[in-house]
Amino acid sequence: MRAVFSPVSLGRDSSTPMHRRLAAELREAVLDGRLAPGARLPASRELARDLGLSRNTVLDAVGQLVAEGYLEGRARSGTFVRSDVPERTARARRAVGPPAARALLSSRGRRLAAVPSGAEDARLPFCPGVPALDEFPRALWARLTSAVLRREPAQRLNYGEAQGYRPLREAIAAYVGAARGVRADADQVLVVSGAQQGLDLVARLLLEPGDPAWIEDPGYAGARAALQGAGARLVPIPVDGEGLSVHEGRRRSPRARLVHVCPSHHYPLGCTLSLPRRLELLEWAKAARAFVVEDDFDSEFQYVGRPAPALQGLDTAGRVLYLGTFSRALFPGLRLAYLVLPPSLVSAFAKVKGAVDQGAPGVEQAVLARFLADGHFARHVRRMRVVYRERRAELIGQAQRHLEGRLDIEPGAAGLQVVGWLPAGADDAAIAAALRRRGLGAPPLSAFAVTRTLRPGLVLGFAHMRPAEIRSAVRTMAEVLPSRPR
Description:
The protein has helices at residues 18-31, 44-51, 55-68, 85-96, 101-104, 107-113, 138-151, 166-180, 195-206, 221-229, 246-252, 275-288, 343-357, 362-373, 376-402, 428-437, 467-480, and strands at residues 71-74, 78-81, 189-192, 212-217, 233-240, 243-244, 258-261, 291-295, 320-325, 337-340, 408-410, 417-421, 457-461.
């Protein structure tokens, strides 16, 4: 029986020769049963005319499928779809269909895929955690990049040391020692491709499936994803005005293997872990032989007083792993962060880092090393503190003017975002969705909670917004938020 044939869609990929595109379309038609087993194809001249192609193009495509076993030519009869293998394949395709993604994943993959990402569109106003990209000194960075490419040996373009470029590790150790009170040398620093990779390495190397791990509640969703992906049993610990409740952690899981904490500036509430709780946490970690992951993601930007010294500097038992990043201070696309590790862990972490991605990019590490060593980083951070303080003040002032009683902002002492509290009983998730429809990216505070019922609120990033953008976004927010009760 002759096939009833309609022109096929040949796609728009101009980089692929037309005869290959036609062959691919005919092959798919055979496999999904549109060209049934035993069907006769139109003559090559007829097919070429219907598709607007040259006859040679059609002959090349048909010849390819004959060679692959999909079609067969019969003397003085024409070209036919073969009746053996394609029939079974098409029948199997129709009966089974593509397998569900869940069936294809490992148990770890299923755990990871089930974790809400909490990711926001970083381009939207109020998206938290995004620095002022328009203020980054791109011309200076370009000069340093050019200098590295001109003056550094060609070997810099090769795979580097898995632990990271040594001059960068030296510069990081000097910086965190002076600015954060971290006790470390370059041999304890591991350069990673973003803080999330650092969390993933920690989870993979230090946790067995089922190990209990404390997480802040509310807290950072990226830490939950890394720990849950490693099979940890998450133990949510409430956070109050003094930070993580160590007493509650001891009560809920005294033998936990690991805790993730943001002691200098909690995300998203903005509180600081008090000194008594810091000492209590270190005492517990030592006794329980647990590890503390100190996530110090944006301590550079302190607006009131001085940031509390790093928890790692108080650790005398080698239980704290200090995690820092350049995504907030410089730009997220750099994808460079670092772990300061207890000496006993460095070798294993470096080996796994090398196995995962052969080390962080060499040129970017060399440029960043110069940026730090030459004092550009310190100057940039000082300048950005001024910029961010002004933008923070603009947001607070505009909210007081236009949103009083509907969104009360808690300024916080540091960071690139603030919390805006909604009236009791408000649905912060529904309000965030309504704001999203108007082009604003403020996530609901409830999205950061695991088990706790929090007062409704929104997390408002301000660092990447110019004052005029802040004013416009607040006016839009005033149109969306429910009217203040009389």
